[in-house]
Design a protein that fits this description.
Shape: globular
Number of helices: 11
Distance between the termini: 12 Å
CATH class: Alpha Beta
Structural class: alpha/beta
CATH superfamily: Divalent-metal-dependent TIM barrel enzymes
Number of strands: 12
Radius of gyration: 17 Å
Oligomer: single chain
Order of helices and strands: EHHEHEHEHEHEEHEHHEEEHEH
Strand order of the largest sheet: 1-2-3-4-5-8-9-12
Number of domains: 1
Strand content: 15-25%
Largest sheet: 8 strands, parallel, barrel
């Protein structure tokens, strides 16, 4: 149904990582995950490059703020760990209401992508809810942004936040097509409250429909918040997705 192996954004287990990085990575691997998506990895490149392979994990993608940042340090750390795609996870909400602002941010990311390519890295962008809530002449700001991106820049569509922004994630994925190379697979009550998120398959999103709309994209499980033990949610998410055809 979807490209794999299934990944998990480690922001989900950020508190556990801060307390015990090796133990947390081992625990994620023990749940069955083979891919992880990193965040805040630059200062931990040495540790990640050593620990990830030792517990049977790979990190094909990672989040790092890119626009206006020291990309040389980010790219060097990504290369050391073996990351393939570096994704900017956040452009300020105030910059999505005007077409010229949107296109300017796209141009900045296009330039970063050229530098990334020189380091063997692919560059991408990950949305929140405001990029789909904002509309210009009836088109979501995210789609205007996508149209202004160089084809080399990929999208990681956070399907949950897209729905919070008021669009059908399935329809959005259909319009964006192959530009979407990764998707954040989440579930819950579809609200701005992180704590309303649940294990994948136990909320209100049509998760299987979303996966079918982007069968080429790498699915990445994430919970921004959860009322309970987040490792239970990761376990249940893995079980639901793999039992429904996602590669482990």
């Amino acid at each position: 149904m979807a490209s794999g192996p299934l990944s998990v954004q480690l922001y989900t287990v950020r508190d556990a990582l801060a307390a015990d990085l090796p133990g947390t990575l081992r625990r994620v691997a023990d749940l069955g995950y083979r891919n992880v998506e990193l965040f805040g990895f630059v200062d931990l490149a040495d540790k990640y490059s050593e620990i990830l392979p030792s517990v049977g994990l790979s990190a094909p993608s990672a989040h790092a703020r890119l626009i206006g940042q020291d990309t040389a340090a980010i790219f060097a750390a990504a290369q050391k760990i073996g990351i393939v795609t570096v994704i900017d996870p956040h452009i300020d909400r105030t910059l999505w209401n005007d077409r010229s602002d949107i296109e300017r941010q796209a141009a900045l990311l296009n330039e970063i992508a050229k530098s990334g390519a020189d380091h063997g890295l692919r560059i991408g962008y990950h949305n929140h809810w405001w990029e789909t809530e904002s509309r210009i002449d009836g088109t979501t700001a995210l789609e205007i942004f996508a149209d202004a991106l160089d084809p080399a820049v990929v999208l990681e569509v956070d399907t949950y936040w897209a729905e919070v922004g008021g669009v059908s994630a399935i329809d959005l994925l259909g319009r964006l097509g192959d530009r979407v190379q990764l998707i954040h697979v989440k579930d819950g009550a579809v609200s701005q409250d992180d704590q309303d998120q649940t294990a994948v398959g136990s909320g209100t999103l049509d998760v299987l429909g979303i996966l079918a709309a982007a069968p080429h994209a790498l699915p990445v499980v994430e919970l921004d918040g959860f009322n309970g033990d987040v490792f239970d949610a990761l376990r249940d998410s893995f079980s639901y997705l793999t039992s429904n055809g996602v590669k482990a």
